[in-house]
């Protein structure tokens, strides 16, 4: 987990940010503060509003209501000024697959107004930093997932943006490439770039300085990963038993159980109670007298499950 940066200047401020598509409310009165040079994470299930929010923050989508300021500019009025100072990397590879690595980056340099010696120096820096030297003449469409990711990141930061917005950028790469990618992100943050990253990987979310959890367009949790885990309104228990599937089926009907996951031969049980494990031990041992129950530390997945748990309809309850 990364240490939280000391800078406090707000780069993104949103109040009541809302986006509707007809009857669908994609983003629902979102309040957001992102500070300079921090890595701020968006975590949430598919369709929760992460991508829609990012598109509004970079000026590609007009909000239905609410206020948002990015890099001191009020949007959408200042969208054109903001676009010159941000980088945007999407989940889907968006560069030209029928152009080479070099041609793609030279094209982007021209778009951003880089010319002559300055352009060549910056391109050489990108080739070296993102290990693209040996790939310059390869068609982008022939690159591996990790190589495409490095090329896309080089393109997004070529013009040295103050703010980098990344929409699930690691969804199609292997674990080592993800780790290398995050090392590159922290290098950028260390140099003063502000990063907002959406992800559905818990290990990536834990690496962020601060984190927003979205659910059905609403902000349901916000803070550092460590703070969110410490403030979890409940407890997490491990159950070791001989018949985990049978015990899981029984516990799923318990009113205070928010979630159950089987990990090997054990069950990880998330509850909304903080009064110890005696009550759960009693219920588990009614099924398996030899079962062991003990409290364990919460993790970010527990926070996510608790924050996004759908309410049970009254009839079902």
Automatic annotation (TrEMBL):
Protein name: ABC transporter ATP-binding protein
PANTHER family the record matches: ABC TRANSPORTER G FAMILY MEMBER 20 ISOFORM X1 (PTHR43038:SF3), ATP-BINDING CASSETTE, SUB-FAMILY H, MEMBER 1 (PTHR43038)
UniProt superkingdom: Bacteria
Molecular function as annotated in GO: ATP binding
Domain ABC transporter: 12-241
Organism in which the protein naturally occurs: Dokdonella ginsengisoli
InterPro entries cross-referenced by the UniProt entry: AAA+_ATPase, ABC_transporter-like_ATP-bd, ABC_transporter-like_CS, P-loop_NTPase
UniProt entry keywords in alphabetical sequence: ATP-binding, Nucleotide-binding
Family annotation (PROSITE patterns): ABC_TRANSPORTER_1, ABC_TRANSPORTER_2
């Amino acid at each position: 987990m990364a240490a939280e940066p000391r800078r406090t200047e707000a780069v993104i401020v949103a109040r009541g940010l809302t986006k509707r598509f007809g009857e669908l409310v994609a983003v629902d009165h979102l309040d957001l503060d992102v500070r300079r040079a921090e890595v701020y994470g968006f975590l949430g299930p598919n369709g929760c509003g992460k991508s829609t929010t990012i598109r509004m923050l970079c000026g590609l989508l007009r909000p239905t209501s609410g206020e948002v300021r990015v890099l001191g500019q009020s949007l959408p009025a200042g969208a054109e000024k903001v676009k010159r100072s941000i980088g945007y990397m999407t989940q889907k590879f968006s560069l030209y697959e029928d152009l080479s690595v070099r041609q793609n980056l030279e094209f982007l340099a021209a778009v951003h107004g880089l010319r002559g010696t300055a352009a060549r120096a910056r391109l050489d820096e990108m080739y070296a930093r993102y290990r693209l030297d040996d790939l310059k003449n390869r068609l982008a469409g022939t690159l591996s997932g990790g190589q495409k990711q490095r090329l896309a990141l080089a393109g997004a930061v070529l013009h040295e943006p103050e703010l980098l917005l990344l929409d699930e950028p690691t969804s199609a790469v292997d674990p080592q490439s993800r780790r290398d990618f995050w090392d590159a992100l922290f290098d950028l943050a260390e140099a003063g770039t502000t990063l907002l990253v959406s992800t559905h990987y818990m290990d990536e979310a834990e690496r962020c300085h601060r984190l927003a959890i979205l659910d059905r367009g609403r902000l349901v949790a916000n803070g550092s990963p460590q703070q969110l885990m410490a403030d979890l309104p409940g407890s997490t228990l491990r159950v070791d038993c001989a018949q985990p599937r049978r015990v899981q089926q029984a516990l799923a009907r318990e009113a205070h159980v928010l979630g159950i996951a089987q990990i090997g031969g054990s069950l990880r049980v998330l509850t909304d109670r903080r009064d110890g494990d005696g009550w759960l031990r009693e219920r588990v041992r009614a099924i398996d007298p030899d079962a062991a129950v003990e409290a364990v530390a919460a993790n970010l997945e527990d926070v996510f499950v608790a924050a996004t748990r759908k309410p049970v309809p009254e009839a079902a309850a």
